[in-house]
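Open question from group meeting: does this chain pack into something compact, or does most of it stay loose? Before anyone orders reagents, we agreed to write out a predicted structure and look at it together. Recording both the input and the output here so the notebook holds the full record.
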Amino acid sequence: MPGRQRPPHGSHARRRRPGHRRWPRVLAGVVAVGLVVAGVAVAYPQLTTPDGAATGERCSGTLLLRVAAAPAIATAVGQLADGYQREDPSVDGTCVRLEVRTVPSNEAAAAMSADTAAAPDLWIPDSSLWAHRVGSDQVTVDSAGPVAGSPLVVVAPRDTAIALGWPEAEFSWTSLLESQGAPTVADPATTTEGLATLLAVRAAVGDRPEAREQLVGAMVQVARQAVPDVGAAFGQVMNAPAEAPLFTASEQQLLVHNREHPDHPVVALYPAEGTLAFDYPALRTSTPDAAPGVDEAVAAFVEALRSEDATTLLQAAGFRSVDGQASATAGVTDGIVASAPTTLPVPEGEEVAGLLRQWAAVSLEFRMLAVIDVSGSMRERVDGGARRIELARDAAKTALGLFPDSASIGMWAFSIDQDPPRDYVELVPTGPLTDEVDGTTRRDLLVAATDGLPDRAQGGTGLYDTALAAFRTVRAGYEPGKVNSVVLLTDGRNEDDPDSITLEALLATLQAESDPAQPVPIIAIGMSEDADIDALRQIAAATGGEAYLAADPRDIQQVFLDAMVARQCRPNCP
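Structure tokens returned:
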């Protein structure tokens, strides 16, 4: 269950036993409070307590306020905390002491999901997207709003950008993805830069029915060049700027790079459709044993983080203000534009989770056997137009074009007695798409085999025997570290002779031979209302797979694509 969220906190604080909890090791990197932020010398702002003046009053005891901040903003928050600490802040006569630690946003969310002791009193991740990733119902996440901002930008070496028409040319997500120099991304499962990029691309392609194919294609394209983190991408600029691909990062990260490495300048491209923003929210993360006074201490420090002096310091560190204002001196010479770009709304948690499942689908290594029905009923025309087998062929070819070269794929065709006494025939043995087979690549061989499917359509449907044989074949060649699966498409029901395996015997055999340590899900696709969807659902369920139905055969391309996502992701979906 995800972490609970509620409106900004008020005066009703949860209680915690006196003292403070030990921070787990994952939260152990203490921020060193220094005098330099992003390579720019700054003075500590003279922060005051919320009433506008230093109290000057003595306080007793200690209320520890534990702050976890994303790496990009942690040093600035540490400086602000140091200035705030000088004013002897207190709550009800108890001295407030701040402890600021650097914690990557994904690690903080994971730690809180596993152990409530990992929850700081104030969490400043780089994006509100991470608030939805706290998977514990014992941690309540309250947002007090952002304390800074930085838009997601496409980063290009300056000379590359000039060749693309910068700074006058207009850029878009779609044009960048369609170009030869499509941007790479950091891993969306662990970085805000990568996740925000996928969400921005999704918003750009829209919600049209055909947008799913475009989105999956874009994800496959960037997955082939994905890097672990933004640091690796900036490293490519340092090592070989002329060959470095475009990539996505926050505007603040770009500014820090240019200040630290002026000999390898980069510039920001702002897509015309808009972009996601890193909003650095102030999140109060409460647990059932919260201490008295912590809510008030958090609220006071968050107010200080939004002061005019704090905003000036954050802008000097490369951030924008909450309302999008950059430093007064920022501009094209720094590689950015001073005016705030159009920003897209932050998606809800379920939309984020769904997109991450799709990313897992296209980025995981996989081994798949596609099993296509070529029985006589597949020759039927749909409303006088294309035949069912032709629609299935086109859907399979579209999906094949989206698979990365690292994929291992094979193909069978089945009806009855395709290769007597077997109901199926192997058209292409399973293996890497780039392998040479019979003088050509396996990918080209699969395309040719798919094109030839309509010529094979005849006879009945030997569904059960084929399903079992396919499952056993993939099991026998199981490859650890990959998602091994069977994708089975049919428009009918089992029509094999009485001596073939029954549905009951098939289900019992599949369940008995399934190994949770080496899962081989069958992803079943029913094409038209003639398909025995009940049997397909039972077959899929027996192996941990899932069944899909394209009641209208003309929808098979969309359904096939959905099944491909499920096939690759299951059982490893986030």
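Observations to bring back to the group:
The chain has three domains: 4-148+280-330, 151-277, 365-569.
The chain has 18 helices and 21 strands.
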